[in-house]
């Protein structure tokens, strides 16, 4: 994998810390600003809404910029809004900074996903995605627990300052590591000259596609189903993760000091899940999604039933973090495979879909909490969202199989054999 991918992952780490860190700060933030826990939890939804709107919008706007300029600009804006968030005393202003930070984050991630997919061979997008999303999972492992510890020691504002400071090394590293547009073109030409003619054909840049052409490609049924599944699975993840702190203390009975530890454990699971998925998502995506999705559903149900058992809670925090991000990262890579006709907007739409889930999950969990259903309720909502994803995925696969079966006889008469399967190539369809 190119070194610049790991630099991009460093920046994604800082941004992922910001997106997830409120999971350990919600109670203190709500108390200081005089709002309810569910209202404070809506800050996660506000960030996700900014990501939903910002990902495709910023991807379109940045089409006219070179990737280096776009990535650096988005990261600078991200640093500035976190400095504002760290000093404000207004909940309304804080919500606005979360949305603005999300717009910058969305633009960065949309461009970074597309850039990462373009840096590797066509059959290695899963591995490239796993490297980039490794920054997100490391944010769960280290950034979020560190934010919780800072919040307990010096207040929630210190976590916002920490995100801004951590972003600065990433900004400097990107400034030094990202090639300018002329350097990138020269490097691509040199690489093409060294390749076998057949490999040159594989890596030749496609003809430029206009915005309308890309938007048309993004309406493909397979892509739309993949994006919907990603939204549902990510919604389940964020539903529980946003309210994990009160679940740990009020239901499982852990003292407050255990909150950063269990947040780190969830993050460790997410890192393991993304790493494992990156090794098999390119070759066996369907098997991973089917088995992993079923296990994910069972895990949420089991967690809801045993949340008051501390041993079970510890184990399931790790297991569910692993399964959630293994399935989620595989769906992202499959969306990139399905959107080859939208080379600049595919990353934006994948980012938007995941953040539809990141907005839906905390909102649905907050509704359940406001209804007085208790802190186990987000676990049941997570289970419901994954069950819905499995139902949608199974239905889509059955419909596709029926259509393929109806086309097979006519195609066989013309070609003298069976038609090629659509969607994932044979080496990745198992």
Protein described:
The protein has 17 helices and no strands. The chain has helices spanning 3-20, 26-33, 37-61, 67-87, 91-118, 125-154, 156-177, 181-194, 197-203, 211-217, 221-242, 244-251, 259-280, 285-306, 310-338, 346-370, 377-415. Residues 182-188, 194-207 and 412-430 have low confidence and may be disordered.
Distance between the termini: 25 Å
Shape: globular
What letter string, H or E per element, gives the SSE order?
Answer: HHHHHHHHHHHHHHHHH
**Fraction in beta strands:** under 5%
Class by helix and strand content?
mainly alpha
Rg from alpha-carbon coordinates? 22 Å
The number of distinct β-strands equals: 0
The number of distinct helices, counting runs of at least 4 residues, comes to 17
Largest sheet: none
The parts where pLDDT drops under 50 for at least 5 residues are 182-188, 194-207, 412-430
Share of helix, binned? over 70%
- Average predicted confidence as pLDDT: 77
Element layout with pairings:
Elements: H1 3-20, H2 26-33, H3 37-61, H4 67-87, H5 91-118, H6 125-154, H7 156-177, H8 181-194, H9 197-203, H10 211-217, H11 221-242, H12 244-251, H13 259-280, H14 285-306, H15 310-338, H16 346-370, H17 377-415
Helix pairs in contact: 1-5, 1-6, 1-7, 2-3, 3-5, 3-16, 4-5, 4-7, 5-6, 5-16, 6-7, 6-13, 6-15, 11-15, 11-16, 11-17, 13-15, 14-15, 14-17, 15-16, 16-17
